Amino acid sequence: MAEMSDFLLSRRSIIVRNMVEPGPSNDDLEKILIAGMRVPDHGRLTPWRFKTIRGDARAKMGEVLAKAFQKANPDCIEEQIEIERERFLRAPVVIAVISVTNPEHKIPEWEQILSSGAACQNMLTSALAMGYAAQWITEWYAYNENVKNSLGLDNSDRIAGFLYLGTRTEDPKDRARPEFSDIVSEWHGPAL
Ligand SMILES: Cc1cc2nc3c(=O)[nH]c(=O)nc-3n(C[C@H](O)[C@H](O)[C@H](O)COP(=O)(O)O)c2cc1C
Hints:
By secondary structure, the protein is of the alpha+beta class. It has a domain at 13-54 and 91-170: NADH Oxidase. The chain is built from 7 helices and 5 strands. The chain has helices at residues 2-10, 26-37, 57-72, 78-86, 109-129, 145-150, 180-183, and strands at 19-20, 48-54, 93-99, 133-137, 158-168. 27% of the residues are buried. The structure holds flavin mononucleotide. The site of flavin mononucleotide has 9 residues, from β4.
């Protein structure tokens, strides 16, 4: 467990540019997905769904993105469309994390949404801890209605992120982190 806390103090995402084949084995992918289900979830509403996208489905998603991008940007050029076609080919495995909330429930919707963020972070951490490359990405297509429809989502569903998973080509340098004192303060009681 000491190892885990040390890991959390130095963990970094591995960006898709530094990611190659292979992706997680089936067993490891299942562990990553189960870690995503083992998150704080007020009221046990399971307000998240995970969809894996791999193999040929990645090129099919690319076609979906290309069409949606063209529709949203009628003046775009062929090079831009090609970038969209290849987005899901950047990693061997992608997990779409969908926030599925019930706004009528007594548990505030905000808390249901937060649980999806926890699911993303747990899966990211699980994959990184197993030594895989992993990055949490939204990009424009997480917010596009055509893309959401193609994934079979309801209009009210939200995409919390796409977790791109693969094998790292290099270890990342650390990036600047916030000053502890800018973020953390101690509360001593209400202002007089
Ligand atoms: C909800 C969410 C969406 C993100 N979307 C993107 C994105 O679209 N593109 C991107 O380059 N990074 C995105 N990031 C940032 C990366 O996941 C990550 O924070 C960054 O690569 C460095 O993270 P690290 O501190 O884990 O190394 C997103 C992060 C979050 C939490």
